[in-house]
Amino acid sequence: xxxxxxxxxxxxxxxxxxxxxxxxxxxxxxxxxxxxxxxxxxxxxxxxxxxxxxxxxxxxxxxxxxxxxxxxxxxxxxxxxxxxxxxxxx
Length: 90
Description:
The protein is an all-alpha fold. The protein has helices spanning about 5-40, 45-65, 70-90. The chain has one domain: CATH 1.20.58.110. The longest helix has about 35 residues, at about 5-40. GO terms for molecular function: small ribosomal subunit rRNA binding; structural constituent of ribosome.
């Protein structure tokens, strides 16, 4: 338990940040899941649209500091790689 005023404030701030990060992470995972569903349909156009949306959300999550920017770059790259492979096969 916090004994100083500054430590109590730090705990309050940490709780707010934890909730905010949880919301951002959940939003990112949901966009990736919708991308996965678009990939399963087999439509290249819907996969590209889902990739565009997921890219925006992942980049925003990194910009807010919830995930590292290189982690975001890696996620975006892997999703784009899957769309490109699907497009090449079609």
